[in-house]
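User: Fold this; tokens only.

Assistant: Input:
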Amino acid sequence: MASGNWYSCLSDDLEALREIARRAVHQHNTMAPDDRGRCGPLLTALFGGIADDAMIEAPFHCSYGFNTHLRSAAYLNAGCVILDSAPVRIGANTMLGPGVHIYCADHHRDVVKRRQGIERALPVTIGADVWIGGGAIILPGVAIGDGAIVAAGAVVTRDVASCERVAGVPAKGI
């Protein structure tokens, strides 16, 4: 999974890791806000790296957690989903609107291999001071540069340059 090569996501080892994440996410999502704090103790322990002042609203979902890295003052609004089979790095002061989805899993195009759970994991990198509008979807392997803006509802299929503004399906410069 870490190499970016094709693998089966149906292994018992990966399922055990996903179960750990499901438990942490469930506790985060059902904990009283005053008890949860900004990121929640279980998500903080689960994530690969998270700044003390990052904020994750509930509900939230991630596949593994250990591949997710949040820098200082990163903000994930309610309903964000990070399918982090590969590293997801979110820069300082970056804001994700409600319902933003980030996907790392790239499923095989061959139907037989897809039934066998064959996929590859491609990293997603989001720079500092980025604003991603509600309901946007970031696809596997995408990098979004510092200061970029992704419009609400956009589907980002390609890299976005620093300070670029994109919108639409697929997202294009505006």
